[in-house]
């Protein structure tokens, strides 16, 4: 046995051994692809010529094979060469058996395993074995490839006493090598280096609610995505049909993580940001924190419910209809009573027009009855039938009991008077002004549209209002209560029920957003990922209650806490931790494992120098690191910062607002004026902590004062 730092030829020899295996796997994949393509072509031919039942039967068999081919092709496409290769691990056990671990399972023509899928039980020791509990593994090897070429190998010995004489051990830490690599546009998968505490969360059973907490950079997002891939692989029958939804804080984030699942051959998971959860609406615009807090609180739900019980602002305030020579009149107070009666039964207003017509006709009958004399003696049934068929009655009804859209309701609420009467005592005068202004800008003025917080209100209103009736085609029955038509593929038109939901950055969901998300998973199991110290939500109790209700029937809970920070260098994390020292318990601060011996820089300059210093720092960092560089500022400063760095033509450079930086990472980060990041949220230093912990290798802070930096 040779150990630790072997002669280069020993490493080369081991690389050559692994190269032979990797080449065999790729040859076998080529063969399988060839077979699959031939099968698909034959299937097409048979399908075209099918004229009788027997041939059709064959064709349907071939269809099944086609599906297999389709799946194989998808998988092959997904194995992008940019990722670390198909085979990434090898286990040698105490019986001298060898198991290769990879992104997918591949067998040779005799059905012997060439590679075991990382999600299969046989691959579990690759992640779970440790010296105290080696699970019969003598040597665990990480194989680093670029496409089909083996670049390096890295070993761990778990049972030193069982290493045979001819077994070579090489390398000094696959994890550290992976962590030291430059960050690119998109997050990479971590299949080759998943750590034991992470693996436990990934492989936890699918039912119920799995909560994963941990500080910045502990791999929560990576774990949640690998868990989605694992769950679909192991429970495709239960989870594949209704689908898996991953919810992240912003489209920049969902774009950043978009390659992780495809790189593991999983292309059927839907990724949505919080501003995109509601079909047909989409937003990336953030309200100021205090306004978002109002819109996100459950008080808003009460206001919306009350708003729907009021008459639409443009509804007629009087009804007059002539019947048998008599004018029947309902004034504003009487109409308000009728409206109240209609609402007394809990139904969605958009589904209640028939009920509205019935109760309005009853009120007209009551009125008529009070006019009865020798000359005017109507019959109840007759009056109701006659008026119910009259065009002028229907004209009144459609303006008085309107079919509403959620946007229309928020547009009314942009009028301070309407909002104040719906709000009652729920909000102060100043809060009502702020909300009304914001709704006006969003819904009454061209070009802005809803904010991210408004999307949850629109979704709430969608459910409170009910769907608009479908247009009736000739010969069809009344559409008022018609069931929703299924869309192509057997899913209902507005498909929004998933079997498993992953919520990332869960600490930031407002109660209203939890309600929106909860509706997507009434029967779902959940993976919920977050870090309370990064929370930007002010009322934690209300959010916790809303989150509990969102889980609905899913009562089974399991919790995993991740404690190692894999992202930041130890120097960067120690610096960032200083800003939350008063609000985080030591338990909540993870342990950063990688030292670069480069301390973060904090530069005190005058505001007039921000632009020049930011540009300089960005240029320096671009020269120092191979990967991406992020300039993070308060949301309001983003347009300025974009102008400052416009002259730098390097596509590794990004400018992001502090709220958009959630979940992202860059090799180097320049944070501008921390105090602005603190004051733009309601939770103070937490937003700054998020920004500082985005950096993997280098960090520069440019500021005009340093009160934010605790000693
Ligand atoms: N086992 C691992 N092997 C290699 N890299 C890892 C491992 N675990 C995490 N990482 C890397 O560490 C970085 C941080 O991971 P991730 O973004 O999932 O953390 P997070 O806990 O979601 O962070 P935050 O809450 O700060 O956004 C990523 O680059 C990820 O690839």
TrEMBL record:
Pfam families: UvrD_C_2. Residues 193-569 form the UvrD-like helicase ATP-binding domain. Residues 482-493 have a biased composition (Low complexity). InterPro entries: DNA_helicase_UvrD/REP (IPR000212), P-loop_NTPase (IPR027417), UvrD-like_ATP-bd (IPR014016), UvrD-like_helicase_C (IPR027785). ATP binds at residues 214-221. One of its GO terms (molecular function) is 3'-5' DNA helicase activity. Keywords: ATP-binding, Helicase, Hydrolase, Nucleotide-binding. Residues 467-494 are annotated as: Disordered. GO terms for cellular component: cytosol. One of its GO terms (biological process) is recombinational repair. It comes from the Bacteria. This is UvrD-like helicase family protein.
């Amino acid at each position: 046995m040779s150990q630790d730092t072997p002669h280069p030829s020993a490493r080369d020899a081991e690389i050559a051994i692994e190269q032979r295996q990797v080449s065999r796997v790729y040859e076998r994949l080529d063969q399988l692809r060839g077979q699959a393509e031939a099968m698909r072509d034959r299937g097409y031919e048979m399908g075209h010529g099918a004229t009788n039942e027997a041939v059709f039967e064959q064709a349907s068999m071939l269809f099944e094979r086609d599906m297999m081919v389709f799946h194989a092709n998808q998988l092959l496409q997904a194995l992008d060469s940019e990722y670390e290769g198909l085979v990434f691990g090898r286990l040698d056990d105490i019986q001298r058996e060898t198991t290769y671990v990879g992104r997918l399972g591949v067998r040779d023509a005799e059905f012997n395993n060439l590679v075991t899928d990382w999600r299969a039980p046989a691959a579990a020791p690759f992640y779970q074995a440790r010296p105290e509990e080696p699970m019969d593994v003598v040597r665990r090897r990480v194989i680093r490839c670029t496409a089909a070429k083996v670049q390096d190998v890295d070993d761990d010995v778990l049972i030193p006493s069982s290493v045979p004489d001819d077994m070579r051990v090489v390398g000094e830490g696959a994890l550290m090598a992976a962590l030291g690599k430059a960050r690119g546009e998109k997050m990479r998968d971590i299949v080759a280096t998943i750590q034991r505490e992470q693996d436990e969360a990934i492989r936890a059973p699918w039912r119920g609610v799995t909560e994963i907490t941990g500080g910045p950079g502990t791999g929560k997002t990576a774990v949640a995505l690998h868990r989605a891939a694992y769950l679909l692989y192991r429970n495709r029958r239960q989870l594949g049909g209704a689908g898996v939804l991953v919810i992240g804080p912003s489209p920049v984030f969902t774009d950043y993580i978009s390659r992780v699942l495809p790189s593991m051959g999983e292309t059927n998971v839907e990724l949505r940001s919080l501003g995109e959860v509601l079909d047909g609406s989409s937003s990336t615009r953030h309200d100021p924190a205090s306004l978002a807090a109002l819109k996100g609180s459950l008080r808003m739900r009460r206001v919306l419910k009350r708003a729907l019980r009021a008459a639409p602002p443009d509804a007629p305030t009087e009804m007059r209809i002539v019947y048998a020579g008599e004018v029947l009149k309902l004034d504003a107070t009487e109409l308000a009573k009728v409206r109240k009666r209609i609402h007394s039964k809990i139904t969605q207003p958009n589904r209640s027009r028939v009920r509205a017509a019935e109760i309005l006709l009853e009120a007209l009958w009551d009125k008529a009855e009070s006019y009865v004399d020798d000359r005017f003696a109507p019959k109840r049934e007759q009056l109701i039938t006659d008026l119910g068929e009259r065009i002028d009655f229907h004209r009144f009804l459609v303006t008085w009991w309107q079919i509403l859209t959620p946007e229309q309701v928020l547009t009314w609420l942009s009028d301070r008077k309407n909002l104040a009467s719906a709000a009652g005592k729920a909000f102060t005068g100043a809060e009502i002004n702020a909300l009304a202004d914001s709704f006006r800008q969003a819904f009454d003025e061209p070009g802005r549209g809803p904010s991210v917080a408004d999307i949850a209100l629109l979704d709430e209103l969608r459910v409170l209002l009910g769907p608009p009736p479908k247009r009736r085609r000739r010969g069809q029955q009344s559409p008022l209560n018609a069931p929703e038509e299924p869309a192509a593929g057997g899913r209902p038109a507005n498909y929004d029920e998933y079997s498993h939901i992953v919520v990332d950055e869960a600490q930031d969901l407002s109660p209203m957003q939890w309600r929106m998300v909860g509706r997507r998973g009434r029967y779902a199991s959940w993976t919920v990922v977050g870090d309370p110290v990064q929370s930007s939500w002010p009322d934690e109790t209300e959010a916790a209650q809303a989150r509990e209700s969102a889980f609905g029937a899913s009562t089974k809970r399991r919790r995993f806490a991740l404690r190692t920070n894999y992202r930041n260098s130890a120097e960067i994390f120690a610096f960032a931790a200083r800003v939350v020292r008063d609000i985080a318990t030591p338990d909540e601060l993870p342990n950063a494992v990688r030292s670069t011996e480069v301390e973060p820089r904090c530069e005190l300059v005058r505001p007039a120098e921000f632009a020049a210093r930011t540009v300089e720092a960005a240029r320096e960092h671009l020269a120092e690191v191979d990967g991406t560089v992020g300039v993070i500022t308060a949301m309001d400063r983003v347009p300025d910062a974009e102008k400052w760095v416009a002259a730098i033509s390097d596509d590794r450079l990004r400018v992001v607002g502090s709220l958009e930086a959630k979940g992202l990472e860059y090799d180097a980060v320049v944070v501008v004026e921390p105090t602005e990041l603190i004051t733009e949220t309601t939770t103070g230093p937490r937003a700054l902590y998020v920004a500082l912990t985005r950096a993997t290798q280098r960090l520069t802070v440019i500021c005009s004062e340093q009160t934010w930096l605790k000693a």
